[in-house]
Amino acid sequence: MIDINLWTQVLTKPVETFRKHKKTEMATAFWSIVISGVIAGAIASLYNLSIVLYFGGIEWIMYRGPFIFNIFAPLITVPVYAVIGWLIFSWVVDFIAKSSKKKSNFEEVASLIAVILPPIMVLSSVMIWIPFVGFLLRTLVVLYALYLVALALNGYHQLWYNLGMGSGKKK
Question: Which of 41, 102, 119, 155 could be joined to 7 by an S-S link, Cβ 3.0–4.6 Å?
Fold first, then answer.
């Protein structure tokens, strides 16, 4: 389910990767999102733990026991929000494609987005460890993800290039 080779190809050679990409099953796409969400959540939890230990130490954890759940909350919340976000974003893109009179299939759109989302999610969670410029780098990674989505969907049904001035017609 986790294909590191595919992740690096999506990030480094997106056009060739999207041309060769075959539709994956929704279950495989779902588990890919969940597993990468758990990885991103674990990275965020380690970050939270390091901040607590640096500023508060063990005493802080001992006297504020219930707050320890806040440290490890990303292990649960990140995968859940990742799946919800993936489904909503896939639905929105599918809706835009259908409203511009393109043939679109929700499963194929969701499959394409599920190829892009996992490496971006893990990469952006690693960026929180970089002081000061991490937020800027995360913003750039998210903008690159939107570019990758546009490339993937252009290969799928020529959506983004044809919407130019809102005409929805091919020139």
Answer: 119
Residue 20's H or E segment, with its range, is helix 14-20
Q: Which two tokens stand for residue 35?
A: 């597993």
Percent of the chain with pLDDT over 90: 23
Number of domains in the chain: 1
**Residue 124 backbone class (left: φ over 0; alpha: ψ -120 to 50; beta: rest):** alpha
Cα separation, 21 vs 31, whole angstroms = 18
Domain holding 112, by residue range, is 4-162
Look at residues 90, 116, 86 and name the one whose alpha carbon lies nearest to residue 12. Answer: 116
In this prediction the pTM is 0.79
What is the pLDDT at residue 165? 43
Residue 144 CB neighbour total at 10 angstroms:
16
At 100, is the secondary structure helix, strand, or coil?
coil
* Residue 137 within a domain: yes
pLDDT digits (tens, 9 = 90+) for 35-62: 999 999 999 989 888 877 777 666 666 6
From CA 62, how far away is CA 87, in angstroms rounded?
Answer: 39
**Percent of the chain beyond pLDDT 70?**
80
* Beta carbons within 8 Å of 163's beta carbon, 6+ residues apart: 96, 100
